[in-house]
Amino acid sequence: MAQEILVNMTPREVRVALLESGILQEIHIERSISHGLLGNIYKGRVARLLPGIQAAFIDIGLDRSAFLHISDMSSAATPPAQDIRELLTVGQEILVQVYKDQLGTKGARLTTQFTIPSRYLVLTPQVQQIVVSQKISAEGERKRLMEMITPTRQGGFIFRTAAENVTQEAIDAEKEFLSTLWKEVAKRAKTARPMTMVYEEIPIVLRVLRDLVGYDVENIRVDNLEAAVQMRTFAERYVPMLASRVEFYEGTSPIFDLYGVEDELQRALQRNINLKSGGHLVFDQTEAMTTIDVNTGSYVGHINLEQTIFRTNLEAVEVIARQIRLRNLGGIIIIDFIDMSDAAHKEHLLTALTAAMAKDSARTQISELSSLGLVQMTRKRTRESLEHILCLPCPLCQKRGSIKSVATICYEIFRELQRAAKLFQWPGFVVAVSPAVAAELMNEQSTMLADLETQLGKVIKLRSEHSFVQEQYQILPWADRNEVCQ
């Protein structure tokens, strides 16, 4: 399936969209104020032991202590049936890696089972074993890869899905690179001070090429020239066949207006998603789990009730699989399909859901369809969901729902100003916003606002409207030179 990647960059936010046949499938967002920690290695210090749950809180220099469970410690250092108090003491220094980012109020999850990924291989320093990705199913290819490489003193290796049909020379080069990198990390860790980072994951624009891009990606469009050059240089070294596909986007329309990505992103924040047949889905995300309810809505079918229900459920499967990826839903997910009585229909539905979720790079596990039409599934959660990144609990509804955060509104305004500057020959702009957004623009975002004024060559004035709710704003032409900020 033809894929395309769009990268939208602003000074404080990077957004990466993965499309298949022109349809948005995944969105990755990283902001400078909340940079992801996944993959980083720290020299930490044990802050507290929790023998009741066989875990420890580790101070790695962040606002919140990170969490290390005994099951996530290297098997080489933790013989079976050990007590956490026999392995760690308060104040002890320990090298750890983040394998699950900070989620909500929870600190990062840590491990001492280190993994250092590259394009084709993952180095596992504590595990001297060779493993091939389960997504490489051809037995002949699995055997070929296993014969390519042997464990070293630096550890073992995992062949990633991208390694399929790769040459021996490419594998040897990556093996040498990863072994050298780990030696440097280990050396740095010996002299590093506690609560400091000794290895940092590469930035998101380069992770795109390493983790998201497959050989069927036709184009990688970037709306920032410097980033495009950086990505092309990285690709030439690690993925030469993709270097020519990285291009600087110079279009007049914002890059996320291509294929309606911006509109799709807004729909992914909505609770209800309509199906083409007339049915609809309802998504409810809570701390414990996410529930998805399938409804027939206005669809009444043309044959009989059982067929109507089956077709609605079947249509819902593809939409659910896509929305789970797009919204980055993780943990426990309960899907409430419309009740069916036909056993063959139930089996067909479960098979279709399994096939649809197979496209997802995150690990998923799907249970059987219950007699009530419920499917319980889990999806590995490593980073925040789209809603948690872009929204905050709504104070107007006693936190039962959510609204976009002040920062998200500011970024939207910046993009709208750039769009308006291309569409209208106005001498400047008046931005009418809620008091909370006005305060953010005049303080935390003032530098960005000033830079945008310089970039556009137009005056930008703010007007605080006390009648506006947080998500409400207007961009108007500036004509009155007496217009001032309120």
Keywords:
486 residues; alpha+beta; 6-stranded antiparallel β-sheet; 6-stranded mixed β-sheet; 12 helices
| Morphology call | globular
Number of strands: 26
* Range of strand content: 25-35%
Helix content: 25-40%
Sheet/helix structural class:
alpha+beta
Question: Biggest sheet: strands, sense, closure?
Answer: 6 strands, antiparallel
Cα-to-Cα separation, first versus last residue: 52 Å
Q: From the alpha-carbon coordinates, what is the Rg to the nearest angstrom?
A: 25 Å
> Mean pLDDT, rounded to whole units?
88
Please count the helical segments: 12
The stretches of 5 or more residues where confidence is low (pLDDT under 50) are: none
Question: What can you tell me about this protein's structure?
Answer:
The model has no long low-confidence stretch (mean pLDDT 88). The chain is built from 12 helices and 26 strands. Strands 4, 5, 6, 7, 8 and 13 form a 6-stranded antiparallel beta sheet that branches. α7 packs parallel to α8. The longest helix has 24 residues, at 168-191. The termini are far apart. β1 (3-10) and β2 form a beta hairpin. The protein is α+β, with helices and mostly antiparallel strands and 486 residues long.
Summarize the SSE layout with pairings.
Layout: E1 3-10, E2 13-20, E3 23-31, E4 41-50, E5 55-59, E6 66-69, H1 84-87, E7 93-100, E8 109-111, E9 116-117, E10 121-124, E11 130-132, H2 139-146, E12 156-159, H3 168-191, E13 196-199, H4 204-212, E14 217-222, H5 225-238, E15 246-248, H6 261-267, E16 272-274, E17 280-285, E18 289-295, H7 305-327, E19 331-336, H8 343-357, E20 364-369, E21 374-379, H9 386-390, E22 391-393, E23 402-404, H10 406-423, E24 428-433, H11 435-442, H12 446-456, E25 459-464, E26 473-477
Parallel strand pairs: 1-14, 11-12, 14-15, 18-19, 24-25
Antiparallel strand pairs: 1-2, 2-3, 4-5, 4-7, 4-13, 5-6, 7-8, 9-10, 10-12, 16-17, 17-18, 19-21, 20-21, 22-23, 24-26
Helix pairs in contact: 4-5, 7-8, 10-11
